[in-house]
Amino acid sequence: GYHRLVKENRDLYNIVQDLKGNIRVYCRIRPVFNDEAGSIVDFIGQDDSLAISDPSKPQSEGRKIFNFNKVFGPTCSQNDIYADIQPLIRSVMDGYNVCIFAYGQTGSGKTHTMSCPSGGSSEEDMGISHLALNDLFRLSNMRKDDAEYEIQVHMVEIYNEQVRDLLAEDSANTKFEICSADGGSMSLSDATMHSVKSTADVIRLMKLGDDNRVISSSTALNDRSSRSHSILTVQVSGKEISGCTLQSCLHFVDLAGSSERVENPEEAMYINKSLSCLGDVITALAQKNSHIPYRNSKLTLLLQDSLSPGGRTKTLMFAHINPERDSFAETISTLKFAQRVSTDELGGARGNKECSEVMQLKEQVERLKEALGGNK
Ligand code: ADP
Ligand code: MG
């Protein structure tokens, strides 16, 4: 009886999660660090919309409004973010494949959100991958009377459309080609898997993976890491006493910087191409198209199993923006990309449109009030 109740409860919970949509797009605004004029984000409405001002135009003209499933302002903490995505993470333990992408220009806070390597030592700055792992280990412990779980991780990098296993013995020289057998599906199963028992185990491995990124590059870590995608995969295998088994994956994808300022034209080409392929795949999924163009990039091929249509996959993209003035053009391009992929049915395109109309009306009222006040 108890087990059935727990299961029903979980099923119900997953249905509620599903209603929120399988593809969600969030925007996170980094704090301003060095711009005396302040932020180009001049309004955050109802936690799901924001307004950007073009610094080169008068305020009333250069204003653009964007809507997302959620907007996190510069004062939001890592824990605020995690609190919101916790149900999504927990659904991995119920057999869902979850992909979390960090998108944005270099310096906009992608790594901070995902893994925060510099602040990794301080508890409160832990990125969502650490918080998620803590949670997964805690959950698997809590359920240990009902099920047995094994958690494994691997980490790969995609640089100029070449995939590298960052946790292989001889990582610098270990490139593996994607085996696209018959239908072109491929898995990351060639990558070296490491069994892990705690978040600390994973942090150690991530450090190793990051070090391996440096060894093979001629430039500094920051430089190289901003021009390649990294994927940390957490694979959960479970066996419940009821006899059910589960196999699911959680991917943390720290994407290459979406900058138009990449100097090396070859690198820029690969970055732009793979990011736009990712956009195409997510848009095709959101629109429930019959053809999903996975094959156009290594990134989407590698993640194909976790990005396929149907009930067992969930995708979340964080669009990161740097709100400083000289990032205006890149911020707009990030927001446009994110807007393009956020056209899901539920709470998507239509809801967004209505919402932005209401917001524009509200602003108009504010402006009129101001004008009236000024005339008195
Ligand atoms: P990216 O990975 O997109 O290139 P980073 O995550 O490295 O960017 O962030 C650039 C700098 O900004 C880092 O020093 C990081 O600690 C800081 N930073 C980014 N986002 C935040 C935030 N939300 N709060 C505080 N500091 C942040
Ligand atoms: Mg980074």
TrEMBL record:
Domain annotation Kinesin motor: ranges: 22-344
Which residues take part in binding ATP? 104-111
Would you identify the family this protein belongs to, as annotated? Belongs to the TRAFAC class myosin-kinesin ATPase superfamily. Kinesin family. KIN-14 subfamily.
Q: What is this protein called?
A: Uncharacterized protein
> From the entire protein, which fragment is shown?
351 to 726 of 893
